[in-house]
Amino acid sequence: MSDQTEKLLTLKKVAKILGKHPITIRRYIKNDKLKATLVKGRKRDEYRISEKALQELAQGLVMSYQKRAKIDNFKAQKTLEFKELLFQHQQALMRLGQLENERLMLTERAESLQKREEGKGGFSAQDAGVDKKEMVGVLEEGLELRQTTL
Questions:
Q1: DSSP secondary structure string, the chain?
Q2: pTM for this predicted structure
Q3: Which of 15-29, 70-84, 114-128 has the lowest mean pLDDT?
Q4: What percent of the chain has pLDDT over 90?
């Protein structure tokens, strides 16, 4: 062959080079992703593909794979971010539940102390082991957290 005539490859050879099934190569030709020439064969017409057309297809496939990889990386990153946010949300809800329980306990202690001060029984602030300032601080923290999560 001369330098001006480009070498033509069989469909089977192109499939082997690309690691694809020959039917896939036919599909590329049918969908105009791969340029091919139809030539007379011994039994029937056969496709022949130029090396230039093969290189163009290979470049397109590489670009397609790179684009798909970028999309997959983006999806993985966003999924990870979502899972992190979900975890933080669950932790905030757990902390809110803990604060709510503390608020209930402190409210019961405060009511008990109030009854004691009114002379209706109960136990003293020392018995409860609670400082009124501490109780107010925990109640305020719980209310602030509840408002921010809702």
A1: --SSSPPEEEHHHHHHHHT--HHHHHHHHHTTSS--EEEE-SSSEEEEEEHHHHHHHHHHHHHHHHHHHHHHHHHHHHHHHHHHHHHHHHHHHHHHHHHHHHHHHHHHHHHHHHHHHTTSS---HHHHT--HHHHHHHHHHHHHHHHHH-
A2: 0.46
A3: 114-128
A4: 53
